[in-house]
Write a structure and sequence with these properties.
Blueprint lengths: L39 E5 L6 E2 L3 H8 L7 E4 L2 E5 L3 E2 L6 E4 L4 E5 L4 E6 L7 E4 L10 E5 L10 E9 L2 E4 L15 E3 L5 E4 L5 E3 L2 E3 L17 E4 L5 E3 L2 E3 L6 E4 L5 E3 L2 E3 L4 E6 L6 E3 L2 E3 L4 E4 L8 E3 L2 E3 L4 E5 L7 E3 L2 E3 L4 E5 L12 E3 L2 E3 L8 E5 L6 E4 L2 E3 L8 E5 L6 E4 L2 E3 L4 E5 L3
Parallel strand pairs: 1-2, 1-3, 3-6, 4-7, 5-14, 6-15, 7-16, 14-17, 15-18, 16-19, 17-20, 18-21, 19-22, 20-23, 21-24, 22-25, 23-26, 24-27, 25-28, 26-29, 27-30, 28-31, 29-32, 30-33, 31-34, 32-35, 33-36, 34-37, 35-38, 36-39, 37-40, 38-41
Antiparallel strand pairs: 8-9, 8-13, 9-12, 10-11, 10-13, 11-12
Length: about 425
């Protein structure tokens, strides 16, 4: 039986996401001007609930019943996710039972696009239509347009023969003649798009990476994903095994991520990016991700990041780059990451991650047998302050340098740090 899909609410062609119908509900009683009391809407797999089911359709149906001030409670169990769960209104709470409410992505499928892959298409002709069904979330890419904002994230409204009818038009000309254009059922799982005042809490997202070979980076998605949203909270949530980023928020302001865990994702554990200011991330555990635990993307500014444990990620614990300025990192433990604990990416002098402060952190035992740095500064990041941190190799013999400034790197102010155990030196400045 085909999964039904909600109607669109967005009108801008720049945003290839579908949102659920009823996203802007009027008064519950059009003749009643009074404010209705907040309600609790319940979805569960059995028993007494407003909606009963075990997949994204049931959760979306319950979410579409929300009005501002309401709470959606998702009962325990594993819910199979074939498409994004979109929260359609502002100022609501989405709550699960910690460790027991699990949103698990359905297995991945994909097909080559054989026709209709141009910009603004609302249909795609595919080689293997039998792999898909109505209601699925999908993404469209080719060999050139396969990452970032060039990916079209949409859904399947209906299928007619070998043709997929899309819920949202494509945003690029995909080369289905020479460029291996393809469609894959990859999408963000729990989403807030153009929203304010959302709270996600107590929810586990399982990306099911073993059955999902198709990668979607954090610009367009994540296990938990916020886009063009403000004043939202993600609390006591877990994301694991997503083929992409665990938690991602893009073009946002004042996002708080509190006491969350993100691990074993193929890209980054957490990814604030694309002009996200005033973020607060605290009490998190970002570990065993294939690339980076904590990735600051473009123009992440005035953030406060404290009390996080960032460990055992493939490359870096924390990565800072393009215009990521004026952030404060305090009381974090950054250890056991593959190349360095903290990494300032190479950028033009005008575009670098300037004026970042690290205070009262532990940066220990980062690296491997060939490379290992507590803090590594590429050109041209400058005005970096390292104050009262412990930066050390505790006997593992892998963190070769405490602080390493590559030639062309900027000023690093060291104040009251405790550095020890580094085989090649506590501090190296390539400009001297």
């Amino acid at each position: 039986m085909d999964i039904s899909i909600s109607a669109l609410m967005l009108t801008s062609l720049t945003l290839p996401f579908l949102l659920a119908a009823g996203c802007t509900p009027g008064p519950r009683n059009a003749s009643d001007k009074t404010v209705a009391a907040p309600r609790t809407i319940r979805v569960a797999q059995s028993g007494s609930a407003d909606v009963t089911g075990n997949d994204n359709v049931a959760i979306q149906q319950a979410a579409d019943m929300l009005a501002p001030g309401d709470t959606l409670v998702i009962g325990p169990g594993i819910y199979t996710i074939h498409n994004s769960v979109f929260i359609p209104v502002d100022n609501v709470v989405i709550r699960g039972e910690p460790g027991k409410t699990i949103l698990k992505k359905a297995p991945g499928v994909g097909s080559r696009v054989v026709d209709c892959g141009d910009f603004g298409e609302d249909v795609l002709v595919v080689a293997e239509p039998e792999k898909f069904k109505a209601g699925m979330g999908i993404s469209v890419i080719d060999d050139s347009y396969n990452s970032g904002w060039a990916v079209s994230v949409t859904g399947i409204k209906a299928i007619r023969g070998d043709t997929l009818l899309l819920t949202r038009r494509t945003v690029r000309d995909y080369d289905y003649i020479n460029g291996n254009s393809r469609v894959e059922n990859k999408f963000p799982i729990l989403c807030g798009i153009d929203r304010k005042g959302l709270t996600f809490e107590g929810i586990t997202v399982d990306g099911n990476r073993e059955e999902n070979p198709f990668f979607l980076d954090g610009c367009r998605g994540g296990g938990i994903y916020l886009y063009r949203s403000t004043d939202c909270v993600i609390r006591n949530c877990t994301v694991r095994g997503y083929n992409g980023d665990g938690i991602s928020f893009q073009i946002t302001d004042n996002i708080k991520v509190i006491d969350c865990e993100s691990s074993e994702n193929t890209n980054f554990g957490i990814h604030p990016g694309t002009g996200s200011s005033n973020a607060e991330i605290s009490g998190g555990h970002f570990h065993d991700n294939d690339q980076i635990g904590f990735f600051l993307c473009w123009r992440v500014r005035y953030g406060k990041f404290s009390g996080n444990l960032i460990e055992n990620n493939g490359l870096y614990g924390i990565s800072i780059g393009h215009k990521d300025t004026d952030n404060l990192f305090t009381d974090n433990t950054i250890r056991g990451n593959g190349f360095s604990g903290v990494y300032f990416r190479p950028e033009h002098e005008l575009l670098s991650g300037h004026r970042n402060t690290f205070r009262n952190n532990e940066i220990i035992d980062n690296g491997d047998s060939e490379r290992g740095y507590g803090v590594y500064v590429e050109p041209h990041a400058t005005d970096i302050t390292l104050e009262n941190n412990r930066i050390a190799d505790t006997g593992a013999g892998i963190q070769q340098y405490g602080v390493y400034v590559a030639k062309g790197g900027g000023k690093v102010a060291l104040k009251g740090n405790r550095m020890s155990g580094h085989a090649k030196g506590d501090f190296f400045d390539g400009n001297e």
